[in-house]
Amino acid sequence: MSAKKESIELPKLPTHLDELELEDYELEDERSIHDCVLQDRDMANQSAHRVCFDRVLFKNVAFRRTTLRKTEFTDVLFDNCDLSNLDLNGAIMHRVAFRNCKLLGLDLSESTLRNVLFEDCYAEYAVLRFANAKQVKFARGTFAKADFFRTTLVKATFEETNLDQAQFSQTKLAGIDLSQCEFDALGASLEDLQGCIIAPHQAAVFASLFGLVVTRD
């Protein structure tokens, strides 16, 4: 059995974007930032709520330990950025792409994700608890030890992703194809895994979750 590969919409960015002025890199509550490039900047250790980013390219930007709760992102590309431990709790994302980004400990709890791409990203310990994710693609990165507790996954695609020890407890994986993923253990129940698509060589991993022992002839 194979799953249909779901296509996602990528960010729709204008051909030309002006760079944001240096003095404008300070974040403020309910601020709107649109039609610009933020490049080669350190935006670490800031805190703001309900910021709105629309048609923005982030390139080589560091957001480590920054808090941006309930922030909205529409047509946004993160390219080679460091979002380690960035708090995006309650974020809303439409047509957003993360490419070659460091997302260690990124918090997307209770977020709403629509047409979001994670490509070649290092996202160990990322948190997506209670997130609502539709048409989301995880490609060629690592989400090892990530937390998908009670995450809603609709038309989600995992391609060549390291999910070792990721937590999927109370997350329905019916129709989700994990056959290209790498893992030695997953946090999930039998009910969570019903209808999940796996490769033959992964069967032993799933059997071990329920105390079964697979022997070779």
Plain-language structure description:
This protein has helices at 190-193, 203-209, and strands at residues 18-19, 32-42, 47-49, 52-62, 67-69, 72-79, 92-99, 112-119, 132-139, 152-154, 157-159, 166-167, 186-187. The protein is mainly beta. It has one domain: E3 ubiquitin-protein ligase SopA (Pectate Lyase C-like), CATH 2.160.20.80. Strands 1, 2, 4, 6, 7, 8, 9, 10 and 11 form a nine-stranded parallel sheet that branches.
Question: What can be said about this structure in brief?
Answer:
The protein has one domain: Pectate Lyase C-like, CATH 2.160.20. It has 2 helices and 13 strands. The strands form 3 sheets. Strands 1, 2, 4, 6, 7, 8, 9, 10 and 11 form a 9-stranded parallel β-sheet that branches. It has a two-stranded parallel sheet with strand order 3-5. A two-stranded parallel ribbon has the order 12-13.
